[in-house]
Amino acid sequence: MKYPILKHQNAIGFSIFALAVCISLLMGYLWYTGVVPAWVLILVNAFLFGILHELEHDLIHFMYFKNNKFIQNYMLGWVWILRPLTLNPWFRRTLHFHHHRFSGTLHDVEERGVTNGEKWSLKRLIFTPDLVIGNLLRVTGLFRDIKREVENGNLKFETAKKIKLYGVFGLIPLTIISHIVLYLFSFDVILDFINSKFSTGIVLSETLKAIIQWSNPIIYIVLLPNLLRQFSLHFITSNLHYFGDVEKGNVVEQTQVLNVWWTYPFQIFCFFFGWTHAIHHFVVNETFYVRHIARKKAYEVMKANGVRFNDLGTFKRANRYHETTK
């Protein structure tokens, strides 16, 4: 009633979507024609893709065009194409709904896939944004835990099979291909640096060089901004969600508000995810911009009911809610 414009949720969502897509493509054109430098392109597009991530999240919850699947899927397709380092959004929908039902458990595949619950180390830092090699390294332990959860009666066999398949097939083909291109580019940059310092003469093959050269626009316009965006998002989300000793169904123990000042550089590139995501766990069907509008009032209610704010001890506790696990 206070903000009548919010009745037009579809129009607002599509307008934000169209504006973010158009500006990101315009920035790519300006970089390609030499008008803006690469670092400006990467920072601006990382910010815009952070907005698109929030839109994708809302679309996964059917908040826009619920009765028009064509437009809804059109938007989902574009946000995946412009964020190809992420999971297929149609597969992710199943994993995300599972996350809400079983947040913080051993079989919360979505959060465990972004390092939640692991002890902080150089390995976790390096693989924070990586859904391919990072998940390849943790898949054995994850599947072992899922099997144990089924045996203990905490998870249905059919559900376990589904989330494992969706977690794997959600990476095919776009996510894996995008990561491989980024790996080749990174390896080429490292070799060039080594050669400039030590003149080793080690270079990639002409074929791989040609692939990188052909992919250059995609690398700078899409992949590098998403690498920055994805690192920022995964760092924030994996540390605001609790893991391992969360009481089943206790939403208060699932998340915290993470908005301490030093996280601001990361928050910018995931549209201040740490500020508002805990609200989403309590009121699921609110769009990301409504959560920001209602943030201050929501904080008052959350504080009064025991939701934590800036519990930095979670970094030492491998994201456990309690000082010692139950």
Query: What is the count of helical runs?
Result: 14
Residue windows where pLDDT falls under 50 for at least 5 positions: none
Give the radius of gyration. 20 Å
Order of helices and strands: HHHHHHHHHHHHHH
Name the beta content range: under 5%
Report the sheet with the most strands, covering strand number, pairing sense and barrel closure. none
Distance from N terminus to C terminus (CA atoms, Å) equals: 45 Å
Q: Which structural class do you get from the secondary structure elements?
A: mainly alpha
Number of strands: 0
Helix residue percentage: 55-70%
- Report the average pLDDT across residues: 96
Principal-axes shape call: globular
**How many domains, in number, for the residues?**
1
What can be said about this structure in brief?
The protein is mainly alpha-helical and 326 residues long.
Question: Which secondary structure elements does this structure contain, and how are they paired or packed?
Answer:
Layout: H1 9-32, H2 38-60, H3 69-81, H4 89-101, H5 109-112, H6 122-126, H7 133-151, H8 157-169, H9 174-198, H10 206-240, H11 264-268, H12 273-282, H13 288-293, H14 295-304
